[in-house]
Description:
The chain contains 4 helices and 20 strands.
Amino acid sequence: MRRSVYSLVLFLLSALLLLSCHAKEKKEEKNELKTYKVTAQEVQFYVEATGSVQPDLGGASKIISHVPGTVAQIVVKPGERVKKGSPLLVIKSPDATDAYAAYLSSVAQLKQSERIYNLNKELFEVGAVTKNDLLNSEATYRQMEAVSAGLRKKLNLYGCGISAGSDVRRDSCSDTVTLRASIPGFVADIQAHVGDKVDTSTGLMTIADPQNIIIVANIYDSDVPKIKKNSNVTFYVDIFENTPFKGIVSYVSDVSDTESKTVKTFIKILDRKDVFKQNMFLKLKIEREKKSFAVVPQSAIVYKDGNFYVYRSLKGGKSELQQVKAVRELPGKSMAVEGINEGDQIILSAIELERP
């Protein structure tokens, strides 16, 4: 019996000794955990937004009427491609009616004066009229020729397309003016409606060059102060998902949309304009300020009770929890944080200290 008790006591003492050694080894192991010296790094911040490709109206052609009148017909639709000289819209104008009537009258007078002049040339040859009569008839003919040519050019300016010597009864131009595209491109905007009264200063339509495009981004009011002119922009399109494109902020509007609480920001495309189409949707990042933050490995951060912490290394192999604020994840499994300083020593693997 005594031998059994002695053996049990001996076993318990051995167990306690082993546990004590194990605890000591574990403590020494924790004391020997690797540390990391906190570094600092500048972190680039961005304003993230969405936008779309729109025509750059700075290089567009604004269509106006050469005469006052009323919009009789709109030939094209928004977004439609047009060639130089393509008909766009038709204006019914009293000025065109008067000019056309004057042209018809001048053509009749021109033909009459031409007959008289030719007749006087024949009569002069036989001495039936004086040279003065011949010269007067020639002057009248040349005058009517100039008047007719001037009215024809005016009508051509109005878009009638009357050529010299054409049969006026077959000309399509009468009391209307056809406005035509001055450049090849596409119809970016139509401001006019059928029945609208217009004058020579009224913008009716905009034709944009497909090569002159710009990005229009909608930036929330709260982010506008963070954006500066000439800020660099990186943007992506769905069809080139992993390909970044570069741009630069060219203008921030002074007007805010009261419904969406956004401000239009215009971005110049710096590369590969040929791959973009009007109304193409984009995701973009606009560079703002840079700030310096402490940078630590993600392995040094532990999440507890809704907050982030690191273990600061103290003298004598001790450590203490230090709350930090995670700012941004960085390449290389690092994290920019607030709450510690550059040069601080922290435990490299915080999870090791969290184990029981």
